[in-house]
Design a protein that fits this description.
Low-confidence stretches: 7-33, 65-75
InterPro entries: NTF2-like_dom_sf
Keywords: Membrane, Transmembrane, Transmembrane helix
CATH architecture of the largest domain: Roll
GO cellular component, one term: membrane
Radius of gyration: 42 Å
Largest sheet: 4 strands, antiparallel
Shape: elongated
Protein name: Twin-arginine translocation pathway signal
Structural class: alpha+beta
Mean pLDDT: 78
Subcellular location: Membrane
Strand order of the largest sheet: 1-2-3-4
Order of helices and strands: HHHHHEEEE
Strand content: 15-25%
Number of strands: 4
CATH topology of the largest domain: Nuclear Transport Factor 2, Chain: A
Amino acid sequence: MTDQTRDLQTTEIIDTEEAIDDDQDYSPMQTEREPGTWSRTLGKVKVVPATLILLLVISVGVATWVYVERYQPNRRTDPGVARAVASAASEGTVALLSYSPESLDKDFATARAHLSGNFLSYYNQFTEQIVAPAAKQKALKTTAHVVGTAVSELHPDSAVVLVYVNQITTSKDNPDPSVSSSSVLVSLSRIDGDWLITKFDPV
């Protein structure tokens, strides 16, 4: 190997080392920073993800609540609710169709406890102007018995129930009991936790 060749190789080695040194000078880890700069930067990096995670958790919680309360009506229309609706329709029907001339005020008050809305207003007017005078004049007495119910519609705050009822009637002119069978579509609304009748339509 000639002296010239060795000199060229030595020169290349020196250049390479200088290049390496130059790279190290420009390495981000070697860049001079004020004391505490890196710790503050890392602290910010930790805080931002934590805030995002907290917001995500809150968003998921709110979305879950909205879904359960508004978009999962089955939670409020389970078989237990259906039984409560059918029972309310049955009891209300019996109260509406049962009265005696000796206890009209009590019978009407019992029926009113099952009603709401415009139907309650209609019932008050109808019993005062039609039912009460006829019951007193003709000694009209009726007793209703529900023989079956079927829930036709069921929503979180409203329902429709088909009620099958037998009604026994006696009067001064017809003292022998007469029995009539009928069916009624009873519409109900949930008001302050109670199912109250808002419509009463014979079918």
